[in-house]
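Sequence, please.
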């Protein structure tokens, strides 16, 4: 099953997140299927960039976003209008 989730990067006390599409049956060290955006909460203002078209395409293909990712996708859609 494909999942859209946030992958944490960065150093201690300086998180940086990527929105990635993963296959839940793959090993934890396996690579991502696709990267659809990023989020940096440490910058002012916070940086949120998601390719909404890619996210919707993956959802149509059966990928299930986490609760937090679906909230960020809604936020990105609202700011894009």
């Amino acid at each position: 099953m494909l999942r859209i989730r946030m992958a944490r990067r960065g150093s201690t006390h300086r998180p940086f997140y990527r929105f990635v599409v993963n296959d839940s049956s793959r090993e934890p060290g396996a690579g991502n299927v696709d990267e659809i955006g990023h989020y940096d909460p440490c910058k002012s203002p916070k940086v949120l960039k998601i390719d909404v078209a890619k996210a919707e395409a993956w959802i149509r293909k059966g990928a299930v976003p986490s609760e937090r990712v679906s909230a960020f996708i809604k936020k990105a859609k609202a700011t894009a209008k």
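The mean pLDDT is 91.
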